[in-house]
Amino acid sequence: MPPKNEWRDLIEKDETLPEFVEAIVSRDSRLFDNQYFMSFFAIDKDSGIAYYEIKEGDRNFIRAESPYLLQDQSLKEIIKIKAVDKAGGESIISPKLALAPEVPYKTYLIWGLIVLAGLVFVFWLRRLWRMWKDKLRNNIQK
Known about the structure:
alpha+beta; Immunoglobulin-like; 2 helices; rod-shaped
C-alpha cells in the first residue's frame, strides 16, 4: 500500500468512475433455494472499489456483496446497483436478467380458454340461428 500522502494524492486525482463488468439477475437451484439473486462486479482503475449498494423499488440503497439475494422475488420492482470507488465516485446501473425463458403457460391457458369460450359462443349462436330459421319456415308453411 502506498504511503498516506501518495494514497491521498491518488484519491484526489481519481476522476474515473467505476465500470461494471457484470451485473445480472439469475437463479440457480444450487444457490439460495432457487430464489432470484444478483451477481455483480465492477472495476476502478485508479483507487479501486470501496463498496456496492443495491436499491430495490422504493427502498433505500443498502450495502451489499455479490451474490445478493433479492428481496423482491417477483422481479416487479426496478433494481439499481451502485459501485462506489475509494475516491467517492459512483456508477449506477440496472442489472440484466439472465433467466432461462419460462413458458408463460398461464397466459397460454387464459388465451386458450378465451378462444374456446368464443368458439362455443359462435356455435351456440349458429344453432340458435338455425332453430330460428326452422321456426320461420314452419310458420310460413302453415
